[in-house]
Amino acid sequence: MQNPDELLAYAENALRSAAYEQAYQAYEEYLKLRPADEAALIGAGEVNRVRSDTAHIVELYKRACNAAPDNLTLKGEYIEAIMADQKTNQAQALAWEYHERYPDFVRFSTQIAQSDMVLGNMDAARARLWKCVEAEPDGLDPVYYLSQMTHKDDMERLAAKLDDLWQRREIFDEHDQIILGYAVGKIAEKQKQYDQAWEGYSTGAKIRRSRTRFNEPVYIYNLDLQKDIFGKDPVNVAPDREVGSEFIFIVSLPRSGSTLVEQILASHKDVEGIGERNFSIDAFQKWYQGSGLTGPQLFQPEVLAEAQSDYLNAARAAATGPAHKIVDKTITNFLYLGFLQTILPGARFVHVVRNPLDTAFSCFATAFYTGSEWSYELGETGRAIRRYQKLMRHWMKRWPEDIKTFRYESLVEDTEKVARELLEFCGLEWDPTVLDFHKTERAVLTSSVVQVRQPIYKTSNGRASHFDAHLGPLKSAMGRAGDPDWFLKK
Predict the structure, then answer these.
(1) Contact (Cβ atoms closer than 8 angstroms) between residue 408 and residue 256
(2) Taking all residues of the chain, what is their mean pLDDT, rounded to a whole number?
C-alpha cells in the first residue's frame, strides 16, 4: 500500500498540473484511507466538477460524513454537493434536519435560503438570509446571496455591510475573499460605481484564477476533435427524424440568455426542462472512448443505436412529467452538437447569442460553481469565446435546418414576437403562458436564478460598456469575435 502522505502529495500535484485523471485516481485511493480529510475532499470535488461528475462528489461527502459524524463543515459540503447534483428538495430537507439539530451553525440556515432561491421562494430566502447576517455578522455566504438578489430595499444596507467587510478582507481566507469580491462588484455595479465594481470583480477573478486550472490546449483539442469527427462528409445515419423530435437542445455560451430561453420553453404545457446534465458528455465518452472502436466502425448502426439509447434513457429518466418535449440546456451542448445531431436526428438546436462583449464580461463577473474555467482571465475568456464562435459557424453551415439562432437582445426587446418564433421552430403551438415564465414553479440551478424569477428587463444590454477602460486584453484576444454579427454571417 502506498504511503498516504505521498499519495496525497501526488494527487495535489496532479491537480495543480491539470492532470485530472491521475488526480482522480490518486484522490480515490487516498480517500479510501482517510475519508474525512477536508483538504482532500475539496481537491477531489474540484476534480469531479471538472469531470462533470456531481453524483460522485455526493458519494464522497456522504462517506466523509459517515466517517466523521460530528464534523458540521462536512455536512454543509454534503448539502452543497446534493444541490449541485440537482436534487434541491433533498438538499433542503437535509438542511432543515441539520438546522433543527444544530441551530447555531448558521451555514445550514443559509442553505435553506439558498434552496429557496433555487425553487423561486425569493421573499422567504431574503428574510432568512438577513437573519443569517444578524446571527453571524462576518459570515460571507448570506451577504453574497443577498448581493445576487439585488433587492432595491437592500441596497444601502448591503453597501454599508460590504464596505465594512471589504476594508477587513485580509482577515478572510481565499474562498471568502472570492465571494466577497463578487458581492462587492455586484452591488457597486448596481449603484453605478463602476470603478469600485471593477475592483471587486477583478479581485475575485484573480484569486479564483489562481485556484482554477484552465487547460487551454485541452480545450482546443476537444473542439478540434468534435470538428474532425463530425465536420466532414455526412455520416450514414438512420433518416428517421422522429427519433430526436422530442428533444430541444439549448446551445449557448454562459450568461447569454440560455436560462431565460429554457424558462420560457419550460413554461409551455407540453415541455419539461431538465436543466444542465451530463448525459451528452457521458454518452459521447462511452461511444468514443469506451467502445474500443475507431473510424467508420463508430458509425455502424448498432453502435450509434447504443449511444442513442444511453442518452435517451438518461434524459427520459430525468424528466418526471408527462410533457411531450424535453429541453436540455447543458452548457457544453455546443461542443457535442455534431454527436447529438447524429444520434438524435430531428432534434431542435436553439442557439442563443448575446453581444459577445456583454457575454464575456458577464462571465468574468460571475463566480461559477463549476465549469467555464476560462472566465477568470480576460485573455483566456476572449480566446475561448472566439473558438466557440468558430465551431458554431461550422455546425450552422452543416445543419442549417436544425439550428436556429435567437438573439438575447431581440428577446428582451420584443418577447412575444421572439417567443412565437421560438415555439414555432420547436414544433410547439402558441401558448401565452410562456410570457409568464417568471411565475413558473421549477428549480433553476444556474447563475441566472434571480433574473428568471423576474419579468423581462433590458438593463443588461450594453453592460460591458461601463468597464470599457479595463477590457483591452479581452478585445485583443477576441479580435473580430467581438463583433456581434461576424460569426452569424454566411
Answers:
(1) yes
(2) 88
**pLDDT for res 485:** 77
User: What is d(CA 276, CA 327) in angstroms, rounded to the nearest whole number?
Assistant: 9
Q: Which of 58, 120, 63, 142 is nearest to 442 (CA)?
A: 120
- The amino acid that residue 196 corresponds to is Q
Per-residue model confidence (pLDDT) at position 452: 46
> Average pLDDT of 101-106?
96
CATH 1.25.40.10 assigned to 1-85: yes
pLDDT in tens, 229-244: 998 765 555 556 677 8
Q: At 312, which amino acid appears?
A: L
Amino acid at residue number 228 = D
| pTM beyond 0.85, yes or no | yes
Confidence of residue 383 (pLDDT cuts 50, 70, 90): very high
Q: What is the mean pLDDT of residues 363-373?
A: 87
Q: Please, what CATH class does the domain formed by 216-488 belong to?
A: alpha beta
Do 400 and 345 form a contact (C-beta atoms < 8 A)? no
Task: Quote the CA–CA distance of 313 and 329 in Å, as a whole number.
Answer: 17
CA proximity to 184, closest of 206, 155, 159, 157? 159
Distance from C-alpha of 118 to C-alpha of 278, rounded to nearest angstrom: 20
What's the pLDDT at 64?
86
Contact 159, 185 (CB under 8 A): no
Cell numbers placing 99? 438546522
Extents of the domains making up the chain: 1-85, 216-488
Look at phi and psi of residue 98 and say left if phi exceeds 0, alpha if psi is from -120 to 50, else beta.
alpha
DSSP bridge partners of 272 = 326
Tens of pLDDT, residues 342-364? 999 999 999 999 999 999 999 99
Residue 161: C-alpha distances to residues 151, 199, 450 (Å):
15, 17, 21
Between CA 286 and CA 335 the distance in angstroms is: 16
pLDDT digits (tens, 9 = 90+) for 46-72: 787 777 677 888 888 888 888 889 999
Q: In whole angstroms, how large is the CA radius of gyration of the chain?
A: 23
Best CA proximity match to 392, nearest among 280, 490, 259, 261: 490
